[in-house]
Amino acid sequence: MASTSTSEPTHPVVFTTQTPYALPSQKFMIPTSWKRYQLSQLVNKALSLPKPIPFEFLVQGEILRGTLAEWCAEKGVGEEETLEIEYFESVMPPQRMSTLPHEDWVSSISCQLPGYFLTASYDGAIRIFGYSQKLLHTTAPHSAPISSLCIVPEPSRADNSSHLLATASQDLTARLTRIDLSSPSSPKAHTLASLHLHTAPLSSVSASPSGAHILTSSWDGLIGVFDASIPDADEVPADEVAGGERKKRRKVAQEDGSEAPRPKRKAPTTVLKSHTARVSRVVFGPDAKGASAYSCGFDSTVRTWDVENGVCTSTITASSKPFVDIALTANGHTALAASTDRTVSQYDLRAATTSATTPSVATLTHPATPSCIAVARPSASAPAVSTSASEHQLVTGAYDGVVRLWDLRSTRAAVAAFRAWESNAGTGPKKVLSVDWARGLVGVGGEGGVEVWKVGEGDRITTTA
Amino acid sequence: MAAADVERHSKKRKAAPEEEAPAPPPAAFPQDVGLEMGSEDEGEDGGDVSDDGVVDHFPEIDTRSDTEDEDYTEDGEDEPDESEEDEEEDEEDGESSEETSDDDLGIFPKAKTVISDITGQPKRVYPDIEPDYDSDSSTEDTPNRVGDIPMHWYDDLPHVGYDINGKKVLRPARGDELDKFLKTVEDPEAWTSAFDKNLQMDKPLSPEELDIIRRLQQGENPDASYDPYEPTVEWFTGKGKEEIMPLSAAPEPKRRWIPSKWEKQKVMKIVRAIRQGRILPNKPKTASTQPQFYPIWNDEPSSAPAPLPAPKPRLPGHAESYNPPEEYLPTQEEREKWEATEPEDRERDFLPQKYAALRLVPAYDQFIKERFNRQLDLYLAPRVHRVKLQIDPESLIPKLPSPSSLKPFPVYKSLQVAHEGRRVRTVSVSPDGGWVVTGDEGGVLRLWEVMVGKEVKRWTFKSKIGAVEWCPRTDVSFFAVAIEDRIHFLFPPNLPAAILAATQHALSPANLPPPPAVPSPVKWVSVPAAQSSTDAPILSLHLPSSPEPPKQLVWHRKGDYLASVSEGQAGVWMHQVSRRHSQAPFKKIKGAVQLVLFHPSKPHFFVATQRYVRMYNLAEQKLLKTLTPGIRWISSMDVHPSGDHLIVGGYDRKLCWFDLELSDKPYKILRYHSRALRSVHFHPTYPLFASSSDDGSIQVFHARVYNDLMTNPLIVPLKILRGHEVKEGLGVFAVRWVPRQPWLVSAGADGQVSVWCS
């Protein structure tokens, strides 16, 4: 650059990128007082882009926050060394897309179905919303609060109109509900089966990528493995106690789907027992077969399971960190676990666990309890699209009502943060209980209902577009 | 004759130092009484001489007198005494004439001879030296300070030396031979001037120098003051002086030259002793007798304390003055009073007195006594060196581990559940740690999830809820609520079938147990299990009516016994769920019962009245202990899960820790809250306890209890949790720990129930 002729100290830099906006691989002398903005301008000018695109810059895998000189001083990099700076499009500030009001707290939200938002609420109802903020359908498979919701993928099914939902509830069962979206304005839903294992409220449910298996986790420390098939007859005898509760449940079920038969009672194929306290979350690994699963619990462990054999293959033990949620990055090498000590810890699942407590790779510190984590999952339609940027990004929701977007390459502070609901004074912040991120949309469920925000996933939008 | 005498005498004097004792004239030692006279044979002589009082006046020894004597003897031995007298007179005259000349000469002061008043002998008196600048020749101003050097060094230079300030002294102008000649003609003093080498100029000679020159020319003694004709002093001759001679013509006594008999006897005694071996003449030199050398500086300095300096006597004040101000002087009454009191009782041991002048002050009559008393004090009163303790105040603070090493403990407020602004007086956490039940003053009972804070069930009662307590059994799940004069038993929704059945069976069995022999005033009313639901109480106890609801419910660890405390007379009731029977364990209790508590492992029962905590053995039905916390009004109490320790909180801001094995008195009293304590609770598994107060804060303590009886419990303050508002002077009503997790649930007067996470 011509500007290097000034007396300002400069630093040799080579730019690389995985975006289509590549600069010629030559050495630039960059003034050390430059920050992200100047570097971004440099790239824009050098490429003479018609529309300016802001870029983020990664210096040795870390996002540049201050000036180059500060970074060099911190890392102790000499002036003569050539820095390799990678850049990618920076994340746009999140924008609020829509608000889906709920009467009760929303415990789980799923954005995985294109065109629809599925929410599970504490009143025991599943609600289906379209992108036009319109409530399409409400079904109540449970009489007790639903704690978790997931879509069971069915790659074998040809038509894309009907989907199988799994919900976990505090009434000690998980249920499988078929929703029929063939007529988009009036979807139908009926509960097919109830999964019986647990003697305590369920905390989460998760389906394998192949859709063959369903995992349920519960407060009693057990993880149940169920197959997704609907049996013809009850596998578990009905409760022998004729309490008023059961009557009510039956009544509710009859109200919802009077034409449908009573849901079949399913028994687990395997029970995964290793946790010593409440299992707060169980997820499948990214491999298509669903051979491995990962769970976290209040006993401060993250466990890796061999689902087929039903054994715990490895355990990551943290010190006094009751975990509340876990998420895996797209490549499946890294686990992110949120715990009640206001941190989200990053663990390398490939590392051998030799010591008693496994140190975390990185720690994202929150001002309030983080309750949920979501990574931009590659959807089933385009699983191949996963780039460097989306691999490193995650969103977390916390009890202070703020959803934060993090980049694992710069763990000191969140890349972006937004408050989900405008909390009126006096009541305090409204808790975020669930986030889901797909196709550039972040669904935020919690105390105030559901909000949908548009969050750029780096260069992902451009590659798909 | 006289000369010979003098000679001898002087010889004798010279020998005096060599001869031991008797030789010096005794007058030389007029005071020396301690000196012993040497041997016995000479002592008499000495005694004789000393008896001779005349010798006392031994004249002043003057060298000049000696020489004069000698001169005199040399000059004229045969001169008669008369001429001597004349000479003296002449000399007197000469002196008087010379005194006048002294004045103009001024340099050699002449001595006057006068008759001394004291000795009666003539003596010389020199005039006083005037101590002015001229009195010392060394202060004369000689400008050239080069000193005594060969002045030809300066021959080639324009100056002749340097003055006292280092300035050059220039060579004075010297005339040639003609000038010199002219000067001898013109200047009448030219012939009396001489060349001063130092100044390189002619200087007129002073009169005394001229006088010396004159004396040298005439062959006289150059010293003007020398008097060759001084009168002789008759020391040993003449009238009245014959007897004072110490010499005598008496023949020498015989004992001077014969050997001494006594000495011989003494020597023989020694000789005999040597022969008999009693005395070893040459003792063999042993190591001890040999001189030993050692480096005296190598030893360590003694560690013994240095001798103590005597305390200083009190300094005198105005009263001790010889001329004290009037106000110090005693009045007549004071004087009488002082005299009337015993010396030991007197305030001061003297009376101030006034004297017009210091010289009128008489000797102090108490001096000897006072000194003696002081010596007695110093001697009899042992003085110790008091070592000043150098204690670092930091070292007195007990060494506590840092709170960060005692994690986990709650540090922040994770969530809070609002109760519509109504005071929440009671809170209870389920034994599995998943659910919280809270009762507010509006009669609303809420059941909510600890982790999320979502209310899942709500019961509404008509009046305020006094207490709520979850049953500690794990095979059943229900809790007891105290409202008005009832105790209701409720169970939460979504129970597993087995637990639900067990709960229903426990609370509403199909076949009721036989009623007790003694009918109890408490009625047990239950709903049949088939009709029971979570919405209504499955079992209710009707207590004797009282204006206030029972203020405390407490379960026994096994979950069968429930104790309730309500206001009024028959306050304490113990309910047994399995037998459906209630009884009042105490017929009569001194004081109003505040709280009761079951011992976690023994059949012991704690009852806290307003000031005391009594510990009863329920099996033997007797009082075991009475603990006195020293609190004016006990507000809260909890027992450690081990059962050996008890904490008691009071409205007077104190928290007492009792070691039940140790004492009836508190092991530790913690005064950390600024307002009244409301609630204390031990964590069932973690070594933690918490206290809440009306100052709106919750304090979390680490309390580690050791199994061995020798180690005291370790109490470390960990954290002050603030976040509850103080409303109408009321702060945090209740704190409860979440079992299995280091989390705390607190209920406040501000209508908020908070969950504090680690």
From TrEMBL, chain A:
GO BP, one annotated term: maturation of LSU-rRNA from tricistronic rRNA transcript (SSU-rRNA, 5.8S rRNA, LSU-rRNA)
Chief subcellular location: nucleus
Complex and partners: Component of the NOP7 complex, composed of ERB1, NOP7 and YTM1. Within the NOP7 complex ERB1 appears to interact directly with NOP7 and YTM1. The NOP7 complex also associates with the 66S pre-ribosome.
Name the record gives this protein: Ribosome biogenesis protein YTM1
Keyword rRNA processing: yes
Function: Component of the NOP7 complex, which is required for maturation of the 25S and 5.8S ribosomal RNAs and formation of the 60S ribosome.
Signal peptide start and end residues: none
Annotated segments matching region Disordered: 236-272
Species name: Lentinus brumalis
Annotated PANTHER family: RIBOSOME BIOGENESIS PROTEIN WDR12 (PTHR19855:SF11), WD40 REPEAT PROTEIN 12, 37 (PTHR19855)
Annotated ranges, domain NLE: 13-71
InterPro entries: NLE (IPR012972), WD40/YVTN_repeat-like_dom_sf (IPR015943), WD40_repeat_CS (IPR019775), WD40_repeat_dom_sf (IPR036322), WD40_rpt (IPR001680), WDR12/Ytm1 (IPR028599)
From TrEMBL, chain B:
Location of the protein in the cell: Nucleus, Nucleolus; Nucleus, Nucleoplasm
WD repeats: 417-458, 670-711, 732-758
Positions of region (Disordered): 1-149, 297-346
Gene Ontology biological-process entries: maturation of 5.8S rRNA from tricistronic rRNA transcript (SSU-rRNA, 5.8S rRNA, LSU-rRNA); maturation of LSU-rRNA from tricistronic rRNA transcript (SSU-rRNA, 5.8S rRNA, LSU-rRNA)
Biased composition (Acidic residues): 38-53, 67-105, 129-139
SMART domains, per the entry: BOP1NT, WD40
Role played: Component of the NOP7 complex, which is required for maturation of the 25S and 5.8S ribosomal RNAs and formation of the 60S ribosome.
Family assignment from sequence similarity: Belongs to the WD repeat BOP1/ERB1 family.
Protein name as catalogued: Ribosome biogenesis protein ERB1
